[in-house]
Amino acid sequence: MNGILIVDKPLGKTSFDMVRDVRKKYNIKKVGHIGTLDPMATGVLAILIGEATKLSDYLVEHDKEYIATLCMGEKRDTGDSEGKIIEEKPAPGNLSKENLTEILYSFKGESMQIPPMYSAIKINGEKLYDLARKGIKVERKPRKINIYDIELLEFNGKEIKFRVVCSKGTYIRSLCEDIAEKLNTLGYMKELKRTRIGNFKIEDTGKFIDLENALEFIEGTNFERKDKTITKINLNDEDYKKIINGVKFETDKKEGLVNLYYNNKFIGIGEIAKGNLKRKIIIN
Q: Above 60 in pLDDT, residue 225?
């Protein structure tokens, strides 16, 4: 098996649990994933199987879509429902849906976000959440993020359910806390479901995308770009031998990932950079 399996990660399981389950079920060693989800989060997880694991570098840049629930009135040490309450402040009592929509819209666009302590970012070789569990708090550098779209879905006076489309590296826990602060209260992320990562949607759960069709889900998936036509190159005998032996050669085709064919049969994926075509994945 060489391709991408789309799963809906259930509550309580880690992303690595899902990888382990796929390895065990299909008896395959080369399995990975993109876009880690915390155990308390659910939703779209792309499992890379076999040769598709070599595509991970091209998938990490994808934008993501989430449905999140922000609970106001409490601040928790982890920023989510699994943490301990460390501070309380009443939720605003006169907040209308119009006011709330305006506040949410104010987060659209590029901004700088400070990653939470409970994250997998490494500082001096140690993950932040390991330091946080030891009671150690360190300074984190702000990172540039982009909120492409944000929309109010439900509001009951204390909880805000919203949809957000954002760039990679955006922490929704931090976004929830920032929204609460702008509403002059405290808050934490109660629930989180990822509904899309790039072109992989929650509706695709259970779908297996083979390598020949993988580039349709990889090329042009950033929110501000439109889908590209996938370049297909049918290699002649000489170029086929070069590709098989790892030798790159010049081409006038546009840069990016391309599907490679020999005698009109799909044989793998190549990459064109600086006018040269080289192999990326070759299927035996």
A: no
Alpha-helix residue ranges (DSSP H) falling in 134-254: 172-182, 211-218, 237-244
Single out the residue of 263, 264, 216, 261 nearest to residue 277, CA to CA. Answer: 261
The set of catalytic residues is: 38
Taken in order of first residue, the domains within the chain and their CATH numbers are 3-62+199-218 (3.30.2350.10), 64-197 (3.30.2350.10), 232-282 (2.30.130.10)
The CA dihedral of 130, 136, 139, 140, to the nearest 10 degrees, is 20
Residue 103, classified by CB atoms within 10 Å of its CB into exposed (0-12), middle (13-18) or buried (19+), is middle
The model's pLDDT over 22-80, given as tens digits with 9 standing for 90+, comes to 999 989 999 999 888 989 999 999 999 999 998 888 887 789 999 999 999 999 999 99
Contact 247, 88 (CB under 8 A): no
What does residue 57 show for φ and ψ, rounded to 5 degrees? -60, -25
Q: Please tell me the pTM assigned to this model.
A: 0.87
The DSSP bridge pattern shows strands 85-88 and 122-123 to be: unpaired
